[in-house]
């Protein structure tokens, strides 16, 4: 939105045959920016399907898993576990909503 107000165009170069085809990783995604850009993303079928319900952290050894506390700043309440590739493929379909070029 800031770039749009300043008349700046953003270009993303994708080296794969399809948008998002090289993005294989997952992500813990905070939807705050998506809420601003596309407020009705849930109705539009955004690929944010698995909401975080709890955070657990374990120190793994060869024979056991030791639970460790998770500091509040690392809690993911309200976030989603997503595929970045799936989100990257979904976003260009929302071009009119984003009022720009993807």
TrEMBL record:
Reaction(s) the record says it catalyses: a ubiquinone + reduced [electron-transfer flavoprotein] = a ubiquinol + oxidized [electron-transfer flavoprotein] + H(+)
Lineage: superkingdom: Eukaryota
GO molecular function: 4 iron, 4 sulfur cluster binding; electron-transferring-flavoprotein dehydrogenase activity; metal ion binding
Record note on cofactor: Binds 1 [4Fe-4S] cluster.
InterPro entries: ETF-QO, FAD/NAD-bd_sf
Keyword Secreted belongs to the record: no
Keyword entries, A-Z: Electron transport, FAD, Flavoprotein, Iron, Iron-sulfur, Metal-binding, Oxidoreductase, Transport, Ubiquinone
EC identifiers of the protein: 1.5.5.1
Function as written in the Swiss-Prot or TrEMBL entry: Accepts electrons from ETF and reduces ubiquinone.
Record protein name field: Electron transfer flavoprotein-ubiquinone oxidoreductase
Protein's organism: Lotharella oceanica
């Amino acid at each position: 939105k800031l770039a749009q107000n300043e008349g700046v165009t953003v270009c993303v170069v994708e080296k794969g045959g399809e948008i998002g085809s090289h993005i294989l990783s997952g992500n813990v995604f905070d939807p705050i920016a998506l809420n601003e850009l596309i407020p009705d993303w849930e109705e539009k079928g955004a690929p944010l399907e698995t909401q975080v319900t709890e955070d657990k952290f374990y120190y793994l050894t060869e024979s056991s898993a030791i639970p460790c506390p998770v500091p509040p700043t690392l809690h993911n309440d309200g976030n989603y576990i997503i595929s970045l590739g799936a989100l990257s493929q979904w976003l260009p379909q929302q071009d009119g909503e984003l009022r720009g070029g993807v």
